[in-house]
Amino acid sequence: MSSVFQALIERAEQLKGYRRVFLGFSGGLDSTVLLHQLKSLGLNNLVAVHVNHQLMPEADGWEQHCASIAASWACDFESRKVQLGNTGGGVEEAARSARYKVFSECVTQQDVLLTAHHADDQAETLLFRLFRGSGLKGLAAVRAQTSLKMDKVSFEVLRPFLHCSREQILDYARAHHLSWIDDSSNNDQHFDRNYLRHSLLPLVQKKWPGVCSKLATSASLLAESDALLDDYLAGDFSQCEARKERLGESINLQVFQQFSWTKQKHLLRYWLAQNHYLLPEQKHMVEVQKMLRASADATPDVSWGRQEGGCSLKRFKQRLYLLPRVDLSQQGRSFEWHTSEPLALGNVSSLAGEVTESGIAPGQYRIKFREGGERCRPEFRDRSQTLKKLLQELGLEPWLRDCVPLIYKGAELVAVADLWVCHDYAVPEGIRPKWRLTAA
In angstroms, what CA-CA distances link 167 with 4, 12, 119, 207, 210? Predict the structure, then answer.
């Protein structure tokens, strides 16, 4: 029996336990072999997903090829066309981000995603990250099994070919007379991975045959060490009083700063990984250290990553906040809201209403945002104050204050999100607004 196929035989029962098994299917050699093997297992919950990046003239033909292969093997098939955004990490990173965005739209928590990464891919990833100065988590490279979270969707990812070489996969494909796509862009050595694959690794392999397998083994051992370190850090992190916030999470800054700077760095990486954020580069850690040493009344922040997984660290009231990197601006916008219907406030937040003992009267309202100079008297105060002062006293995080929905009836401010109802507009059995940050 092929050693390539053996890895899947061992996972057959596990795969049958998922609602659906999705395969990232490019139509290339590796994913074609994996799809062929999955069908050989007799899975009836298999879905091949093809992402058309529209980067090459042949892209539509490749999509049709994948659809034809899936149909001939009686496999469910989905395809999506994507436009690559500017992630700041080049075409390769933008394409990867777009693919996983599509996967997150297809795969649910009851499903699993399989990709056809193999030992040669693992070796390239390890070297690439080593040259970039990655730490332990980065050098652990591609994991055989991991949990991925995107757009608030979490799902399992399995990579059953990590122990197999590209040569073994090619031998299998030839033995079974499979056809696959050869993407000419994979030979373009302007791309970092292609340079590693076609120029650097062949030179190394001449001196040390089998080096890709050895590098893949090293990555696996590093992954074990990283998992052990996470177990160790979990105990210290539990002391930091992590809690969910309206947006993101926060920890107790005073407790956190009792640890050495070395441990603080590892705890930060642990926290980021638990929330599926991009890990910071060394230059970002230097800025984080400056932020942590700033005066107690300062509210500095450090951000990194423009694509999926980008995040910010902010300080406020002796808490350290970890936030998704999103645009919260609502300046100049307004919306009409009837309390009987939920309302999306652009891509930033949403507003809904529920009946409570005291709230605003049911009906139609206008939603606006801070412009400066607003005043009101909350139901729990005996006089009016500026909105700016009230939000400060309430302790609402500074970065949320300009996107707080202000609820108006005509020219009168009647409520501020779900923070309070203004004194003259509270009625028994009224509607209490519920404000939710979309990216939370």
Answer: 11, 24, 10, 18, 11
